[in-house]
Structures
1.
Amino acid sequence: ESKCKGRGRATLFEEDMLRDLRQTRMVERDLRAAILLGELELAYQPLSSADGGIVACEALVRWRHSLRGVIPPSEFIPVAERTTLIDQLGEFVLRRACCDMKEFPGLSFGVNFSANQFKRDGVVSMVEAILAETGTDPRRLAIEITESMAMSDGEDVRKRLEALRSLGVKISLDDFGAGFSGFAYLQSFPVDSIKIDRSFVAKLGTSSVSSVLVSALVNVAHAVGVNVVAEGVETEEQHRLAVAAGADLFQGFHLARPMSLAALRDHVARQEAGGLPRSGAASAPR
Ligand code: C2E
Ligand code: MG
Ligand code: MG
Ligand code: MG
């Protein structure tokens, strides 16, 4: 069968690889242009405390493509990570978020960083420069990293995290528990908070084991002085159970969806006026 194919013809496997490569090249080329054309924008998703008050926001990048509409990060971040585009993208996101933060003096802002950004020597000076240039209080910035970052270059990454923390920047461990090394990471990397992966939050209410597990995560984190965010809170029940488990902050579609800067302004203003419903996001998904 496959022997009969003869030489000079790509196997199905090779065809797949070539297609992937071509796809990557196309996205890379378009993304390079998008950064220059200003097609990248940020959506902001509020994080609230147990009483429903907004205390922070997470910046989530969006690509408003001229032909394809809004493209989610899952479709272009992996491509950016395979090239040096992630550095430009990361810098853009941080600068934009720091500029936008000025409007919301009471809130801290989370910005996602890729593992590859932390592999660069210059990451700390880049952050320092943008904080200075935008006049941002470092204590209001939380850099979100994932535990996969610990896999390689552990020592360099640790040093860079330490350097950022000594500037006052907070470090948040994203998607906590989704990988294998969550607790090990807590032991060797300096972090201020963990964001319990939404796969755990999604199971709250489906079994008592889930509640016990989340409580245990919260207890361990608190015992080592680390704050806990429950992410991916989609229902009233998940919210209630995550509060009962002792999480400090809550993020998810049930509370508020990622929204434009303009929508965030309205959202925060409504809350300050006391008119914001405690839960149930009315804004459209972005
Ligand atoms: P993440 O950092 O864990 O961000 C949370 C993701 O979960 C966001 O998806 C958000 O829209 C989504 N989400 C929030 N609440 C809920 C919920 O209740 N249910 C469900 N099902 N999902 C919820 P998004 O915006 O598509 O981002 C996906 C991932 O892309 C992020 O995961 C982050 O890892 C990455 N990302 C986003 N923006 C950036 C960025 O500026 N730089 C880098 N390096 N990565 C980014
Ligand atoms: Mg995040
Ligand atoms: Mg997350
Ligand atoms: Mg994630």
2.
Amino acid sequence: MTSPATPWDLPAGFSWGTATAAYQIEGAVDEDGRGPSVWDTFCAQPGRIRDGHTGAVACDHYHRWAEDVDLMAGLGVDAYRFSIAWPRVQPDGRGRPNPAGLDFYDRLVDALIARGITPTPTLFHWDLPQALEDDGGWLARDTAARFADYAGHVADRLGDRVRTWITLNEPFIHMAWGYALGVHAPGHALLLDALPAAHHQLLGHGLAARVLGGAGAERVLVSNNLTPVTAASESEADRAAAAAYDTLHNRLFTDPLLLGRYPDLAAYGHDRDALPFVESGDLDLIGGSLTGLGVNYYNPTVIAAAEPDAALPFTTVEITGVPRTAFDWPVVPEGLTTLLTGLGARYGDALPPIWITENGCSTAEGRDDPERIAFLDGHIAAVAAAGKAGIDVRGYYVWSLLDNFEWAEGYHQRFGLIHVDFATGTRTPRASYHWLRERIGVGRPG
Ligand code: GBH
């Protein structure tokens, strides 16, 4: 009998990381030639962000990055998922790259590698250059080509040291909240007319994956927010609504990426073989482009049928009888096992290795965070259970390293293993940081 490397009995070589995103931590929005992003614009509009908070300073990671790398090294993780701000690299979203913007990530990558931490950058975590939004954003097909061009500039600079790339973060949430509901930047409330933003993100990924492959990438992932969906009742109507929701949230992105075709979109009034924004060759490019799947998991979803003439064919039902995070999201660790085994059942051999690229919860501000410890412990155990059931999960990134700018909630939600005092920038590891260090260190040499 061999003793497990960690208390969770995960496979040898399982990777541990933390995750962040540029606009949520960097600040320094006007420095070294950075151009404005859709999030700068959105935050400046009254009423968009709780209490008018913005990412202008955030965690000041742009200046405190070395301290943050030290904190990660102290935690004992071997990987770091961060995002690259497109408007630092191409202030107007096109043309010659801005060397000073690339320098920042160049230094960060070197510092991570020097501490034995594998850099896993995400190229797009929602901060589109405002100039591209002015030309239509992800509703415009050309943005996909711009994205591939941007990816090429980043790969030219970092591709000698970065092996694993994540092209997109949560294209579903970006489409749904940014383009369909308007609660995130760029603030469009187009409902189902937001669909082209899904396809153009996927196309951008496909084009970028080809560029990254050419630059020697070993793995290219998309990190999507996935949720296991169940029907509120056994009724035919609720089950149809749940299937429709599953199609939109989970399959709309994963099917084209893994199977090279869109799911049945009849529930949304579309013929999947006649989508006006899909051109010939697009799906060949998108399908088969993934060499790893990034899964961001927060909670399951329960769905019921909508009223007959509602705009969308489903409605969300609150999950009761479980603990809730400070954000009021239900805590259901076994939902992650269900999600992962469900992916295996749905995609079979087409499913590439999986990395959990985000999982975590917001808690009260205090440094003592038993809720976070319980959340992480339960969810990591759920990953191990999926592994036992035959799902190839290779790593887990905690969202997040630091308390940060939580989008429309501003600084009100705290997701960090490390507390941040936003008045002074002071970082203080929480109890969960010490707990995780201990747990992932067990069985490790040195
Ligand atoms: C991610 O999005 C983002 O990638 C990251 O930037 C962000 O900071 C982090 O998660 C935390 O929010 O109403 O109870 O059904 C997460 C997307 C969408 C996941 C809403 C949970 C619903 C909760 N989230 N969702 S509930």
3.
Amino acid sequence: KEGVYLEIQTTLYDKNDHLIFVRDVTRLHLLEKMRKDFVANASHELKTPLTVIKGYLETLSMFADSLPKSMQKGIVNMSEQSERMEQLIEDLLLLSRLESDDKREENQWHKISDLTQSIQKAIEPILTGEHTLIIDIPDDARLYGSYKELYSAFSNLIVNAVKYSPDGGNIEIKWESSDLNGVFSIKDSGLGIDPRYIPRLTERFFRVDKGRGSKTGGTGLGLAIVKHVLLHHDAKLQIRSQPNYGSTFSCHFPVSRTRTDSIQTISPTH
Ligand code: ADP
């Protein structure tokens, strides 16, 4: 029947017999859809009032010099928090789009070095000079997918590597391909992550240290975004980390989505 969702599982009962379990999950699907719609609508509705608040704050900061010190501090604080809220809304909207079945940007072949170069340019303001980006990506390496989605996944991982290496150090960004797959990896020598938290990192709003997260301006949605983007690209995320020594986040793409030659004529059927 249309609109009915069933979950079917089979198990071998004995040599010749199978047990078939059928579960009606229509209600679960409806609830999930309601959750997604609510988050998408609420995030969208929050955009307009925030734009108005930010506008007035900008005007206020022009006159900040004539205000008492405590009010100047308040304006700086409000500006920082409204930037944070804007980032949160943007991330929620992006996650909603990634979760919905709406039409997606068409998949195309992209030079991986183009992606990393524009990310590098965009993150210049957060590079304090303490960090050294070591980028090792063959110029002819290409990936088949959505530029916007890949950009947000890779930039979230690179920004995290910077954010969670407060003492600076090297950040290695690499592309390696073999007959089996293509791997995009980011290695930092920062704070690292306790192994017991690793399985939870891609949950929405999960942060190892909430206090640390609010200081570094995180939303807790970055790795959830990475997970969804990789799912769209038939890829998997691998996380290896050692507290106080650093972390490596690797995105494993199937070989059908990777090329290393400069001319591409056939597209995979994704
Ligand atoms: P956030 O916006 O808080 O950075 P993410 O979803 O991107 O959210 O990451 C979730 C949590 O995973 C972070 O709060 C942080 O605790 C941890 N994390 C992510 N990347 C790294 C990293 N490179 N090094 C150490 N911890 C990390």
4.
Amino acid sequence: ETVEERLKQRIVDGDRLGLDADLTEAMGKYPPLEIINSLLLDGMKVVGELFGAGKMQLPFVLQSAETMKAAVAFLEPHMEKIEGQEKGIIVLATVKGDVHDIGKNLVDIILSNNGYKVINIGIKQPIAAILASARENRADAIGMSGLLVKSTVIMKDNLEEMAREGWNTPVLLGGAALTRAFVEEDCVSAYAGSGRVAYARDAFDGLDLMAKVAE
Ligand code: B1M
């Protein structure tokens, strides 16, 4: 078995024993972000498929998620960082009712490593908490993440609330249940006339969008 196969399988199995040694070996071949994007996330995709098909139970999904988090924590100090002046401030949250945070935390790492200040306020955040943090930190952008289908509806509600309150801060939306069409049609019209709403397919997309927003 190659190190690539082993790492992917570790995510599927939630197997952390010896994880660091495999990650160290993989770092001899790939940069840390590539290990995450092309090896570890492949394993997570399999977990999602097995779970969706009823072939994997929730406690095992949790083990996979914990393994993913341990791997990211191990790799993070080895990632390239752009130091220097702060390019902009973003408040990042997983929306109300949603606990999924692996994607959000990857966005945090990638933005932080690229010169942005990220205020990551965590999971299950109601819009009031997100806005309070944005106000307090004078955020240049707000990022909302959510993986459940119901989270997409909450994002749209959040934008309506923001429009009602007269906000015009740009908003980035991301997470597996979203589609570009939903963001560009429903969400953009919910925030109509107020500010920009953009769909981030992945964390790098989030970085590109943040660069545009903070210009
Ligand atoms: Co859950 N879960 N889960 N889960 N889980 C999904 C999302 C699901 C699709 C699985 C499935 O059925 N196949 C399904 C949702 C179905 C739906 O809504 N229609 C589901 C379900 C049903 C549930 C529960 C309801 C199960 C239950 O309790 N019966 C429950 C929900 C609890 C709740 O939220 N209230 C639940 C719980 C869990 C765990 C706790 C066990 C665990 C999460 C642990 C954690 O995050 N700390 C978990 C996991 C791991 C998953 C899957 C398998 C993997 C998610 C993940 O971490 N992916 C997931 C299957 C799937 O997504 N297909 C699933 C890796 C991550 C890096 O990707 O977050 O998409 P993602 O992030 C990407 C992009 O989307 C983007 O960048 C990232 C990197 O490319 N991105 C952004 C994300 N946010 C962004 C924000 C940005 C920019 C980009 O800017 C703001």
